[in-house]
Amino acid sequence: MASDADGGGEPEAGTSLEAPERPLVVFCRKCNTILGDTNAFVCTHPALKTITLGAAYSVTSKKDEVETPPEGEARGSSFYRFYCESCSECVGKVFLSTTRGLDPMRDNYTFDSHAIRSYELSERPQTTVENGSGTPNSSVLLDRLEVLETQLLKVENLMLLFNERIDALESGRGIKR
Ligand SMILES: [Zn+2]
């Protein structure tokens, strides 16, 4: 969609297609709703301070409210905004048309970094204490889920075993139901 009449030549700061080293989960800064993760990473834009993902959760958008910024880094592009579903805060933009530099952002979810927080998934459990909101640590939760799953399996096996024993006992004593 980019026209070839944009002068060219000028080195644009543009987007960075380099995904973060570790997976990130993106939260609404205001209400902590999870909005996306870098499994769908598209790009970041250092100058705009944005991170663009190919998919987003729990967002709503007003597709008919298209804006065309007259100046700034996004000049020459058009977009509509999208909002956190739970608190209605504007968390980013979906670009409908872009200048060449912003091309990777088109039709994807570009989050404004001031509207979100991101949480890095790491190998080791960490605690997020800096904001005091007690965001659950995903890796810790995953570990616990795994333990719970194993325990549940054991309990299920035990119940099957007991069932067999009870059946055997009942038939041995001639108990009828
Ligand atoms: Zn929110």
UniProtKB/TrEMBL annotation:
Subcellular localization: Chromosome, Centromere; Nucleus
One Pfam family of this chain: Yippee-Mis18
Any Gene Ontology biological process: cell division
Positions of the Mis18 domain: 23-121
Keyword vocabulary terms for this entry: Cell cycle, Cell division, Centromere, Chromosome, Metal-binding, Mitosis, Nucleus, Zinc
GO molecular function: metal ion binding
InterPro entries, per the entry: Mis18 (IPR034752), Yippee/Mis18/Cereblon (IPR004910)
GO-annotated cellular components: chromatin; chromosome, centromeric region; nucleus
Top-level taxon in the UniProt lineage: Eukaryota
Main subcellular location: nucleus
Name the record gives this protein: Mis18 domain-containing protein
Organism field: Chloropicon roscoffensis
